[in-house]
Write a structure and sequence with these properties.
The protein is about 80% helix and about 0% strand. The chain has about 170 residues and is mainly α. The longest helix is centred in the C-terminal third of the chain and has 43 residues, at about 130-170.
C-alpha cells in the first residue's frame, strides 16, 4: 500500500505543480479584483449605501437576485457549448468542461480583452488535444462575438427606427 500511495495522485509531481498553479491563479485573480476595487476609493465608502439601497428598493433587489441566478446558468450553458465542441475530438466530462469554463473565466479576468481565456479552458482537456482545444475556444469566442455584433446592430436599427418614428410622430402632431 505504501508504494502505491507514493505513486498515487497526491504525490504525483505533475499533480502537485497543477495544484500549485491553480492556487497561484486563484491568488492572482483575487488580488487583481481587490486592487481594482481598491483603486475606486468611493466604492468602499459607498458600499454601505449600496447595501442599504438593495434592502429598501425591491426592484433593485429582485434584479440582483435575477443576476445572481442567471450567472451560474450562463456558465452552465457556456460549459455545455464547450463540452459539445470538445466532444468532436476528445472525451471530457461535463464537470471538466465546467472547470475549464470557470478556469478560462479566471484567466480572462486577469488578461486584457480576455485574450488568454483559451489557456484556462485547455487545462482540463488531455495534452494531445490541446491545440484543437485552443482552436475550439477561439471558434467559440469568435462565434459569440459575431452573434453579439449581429444582435447589437439589429437592436441599434430598432432603436434608431423607433426614435425616427417618434420624431416624425411628434412633428406631425
Amino acid at each position: 500500500m505504501g508504494n502505491n500511495f507514493i505513486k498515487g495522485t497526491f504525490w504525483n509531481p505533475l499533480k502537485k505543480y497543477a495544484l500549485l498553479i491553480k492556487f497561484a491563479v486563484t491568488l492572482i485573480v483575487l488580488t487583481f479584483i481587490y486592487l481594482q476595487l481598491k483603486g475606486k476609493a468611493d466604492f468602499f465608502d459607498n458600499l454601505s449605501k449600496i447595501i442599504l439601497e438593495f434592502r429598501t428598493d425591491i426592484k433593485k433587489r429582485n434584479l440582483m437576485v435575477l443576476v445572481v441566478i442567471m450567472m451560474p446558468l450562463n456558465w452552465m450553458i457556456e460549459s455545455k457549448k464547450w463540452h459539445y465542441l470538445t466532444s468532436k475530438f476528445c472525451s471530457i466530462s461535463f464537470l471538466n468542461a465546467l472547470k475549464g469554463t470557470l478556469s478560462g473565466l479566471s484567466f480572462g479576468i486577469i488578461s486584457p480583452n480576455r485574450t488568454v481565456e483559451f489557456a484556462g479552458r485547455v487545462l482540463f482537456i488531455p495534452n494531445k488535444f490541446r491545440i484543437r482545444g485552443v482552436v475550439a475556444s477561439l471558434l467559440i469566442s469568435w462565434s459569440q462575438l459575431l452573434i453579439m455584433l449581429i444582435v447589437g446592430i439589429i437592436a441599434l436599427l430598432v432603436v434608431v427606427f423607433l426614435k425616427f418614428n417618434m420624431i416624425i410622430l411628434v412633428y406631425f402632431l
